């Protein structure tokens, strides 16, 4: 019985290690997506810091950047599957 418990524990540990390594690999392969997300977040920060008087263009640009961040996040999640 003790041997069976040890075997089950080992199997669960290996599954856990595989999940961690597999998840890390999925994110590592997406270096360009993660870099793009960082650049988009930096752009959003700059747009937020800009003077608001831009005839509505700053607000529209911020909306588009936020949409791009959302799409990038969805792409990262899809690539991790």
The helix-strand sequence is HHH
Arithmetic mean pLDDT: 79
Helix content: over 70%
Beta-strand content bin:
under 5%
Structural class: mainly alpha
Distance between the termini: 37 Å
Largest sheet: none
What is the 3D form?
A: elongated
Into how many domains do the coordinates divide?
Answer: 1
Question: How many whole angstroms does the radius of gyration measure?
Answer: 21 Å
Any low-confidence stretches, pLDDT <50, length ≥5? 17-21
Number of helix segments?
Answer: 3
How many runs of DSSP E, i.e. beta strands? Answer: 0
What's the helix and strand layout?
Blueprint: H1 2-28, H2 31-49, H3 57-79
Overview of the molecule:
There is one protein chain. Helices cover 85% and strands 0% of the residues. It has 81 residues and is mainly alpha-helical. The protein contains 3 helices and no strands. It is elongated, with a radius of gyration of 21 Å. Helix 2 (31-49) packs antiparallel against helix 3. The longest helix is centred in the first third of the chain and has 27 residues, at 2-28. It has one domain (2-79).
Question: Quick gist of this model?
Answer:
Helix content is 85%, strand content 0%. With 81 residues, it is an all-alpha fold.
Features:
81 residues; elongated; single chain; mainly alpha; 85% helix
């Amino acid at each position: 019985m003790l041997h069976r418990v040890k075997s089950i524990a080992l199997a669960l540990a290996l599954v856990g290690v595989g999940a961690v390594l597999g998840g890390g690999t999925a994110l590592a392969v997406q270096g360009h997506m993660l870099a793009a997300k960082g650049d988009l977040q930096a752009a959003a920060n700059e747009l937020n810091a800009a003077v608001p008087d831009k005839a509505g263009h700053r607000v529209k640009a911020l909306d588009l950047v936020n949409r791009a961040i959302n799409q990038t996040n969805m792409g990262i999640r899809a690539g991790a599957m």
